[in-house]
Amino acid sequence: MKFLIAGFGSIGRRHFRNLKALGQNDLLLLRSGKGQLPDDELTGYIVEDDISTALNHKPDAVIVANPTALHLAVAIPAAKESCHILLEKPISHNVDRVDELQSAVQAVGSRVQVGFQFRFHPGLLKAKELLNSGELGKPLSARAHWGEYLPDWHPWEDYRKGYSARGDLGGGVVLTLSHPFDYLRWLFGEVSYVLATTQRSGQLDIEVEDQADINLGFTNGATATVHLDYLERPGSHWLEIECTNGTMYWDAGSGNLRIRLSGARSEKNYPAPDGFDRNDLFLDQMRHFIEVVEGLVEPNCTLEDGIKALQIALAVHTSAIEGRKIKL
Description:
Elements: E1 3-6, H1 10-21, E2 27-30, E3 46-48, H2 51-55, E4 61-64, H3 71-80, E5 84-88, H4 98-108, E6 112-115, H5 122-133, E7 139-147, H6 173-176, H7 179-188, E8 191-199, E9 211-218, E10 223-229, E11 236-243, E12 246-251, E13 257-261, E14 268-270, H8 279-293, H9 303-322, E15 326-327
Parallel strand pairs: 1-2, 1-4, 2-3, 4-5, 5-6, 7-10
Antiparallel strand pairs: 7-11, 8-9, 8-15, 9-10, 11-12, 12-13, 13-14
Helix pairs in contact: 1-8, 3-4, 7-9
């Protein structure tokens, strides 16, 4: 199979390396030339700077890993050429051309996997299994927290020039750290309302929000709070879920899932597998996407899932600006 990778920032390079690790070497790149990563790894590979020219090489699949605001400019022509697509999250910074992508995908039967890699985390997979089994009873509420210090993310570049810090490229903490919107919906079901505040602290000299506090309501009656920020040092990412028969706590850093049943004197721990590494999520996602391209499985995070997560993120911004609850 031939894979076209659009973008060679940190996530594009990760996908490039993971594809090679999985034995896929028929690769080509679409690059703007504005990235700051060295390109010595690309020696011997075709590199194009125009999507039409890149698609003339007839790739089977396209990995969309350029800045958020530029995703659909690659994904739509790729879909029209019947390519299968791994579309990084969030799928865009607004919904302006989302319907055009949907129409293109439906017209030719392209399969789209959205890059919410936490759906492959063993701790969250176990949490979903336990919730589905009913062992902990009915889910009542959740608290998700994710804070990381933005200047530490990509030490090779000025963080203020990266897409995460630029509104014109679809940055800001709400879109960039939108994973909890997807995994909470994956665990709890559809979101019915959003009530949120966002803030630009001034600590980072960036033009986008660096803090957000969000309340979510779900159609099953559960609620959740989500805190996101670009400021926490050292960073932390965790999820706590309260159910009628117990609680669970997942820590993204250690990978551990901890369960306490109501009335129990001890906890159950489900640690991450020995040697577990953050890149394992991306490797598992890429293995899955290869099977999607081969037609062996359906995407476990579909374009519709990506649209739902984007709608939640955009509702966060609307709620923060208008100071009211947004119904979905």
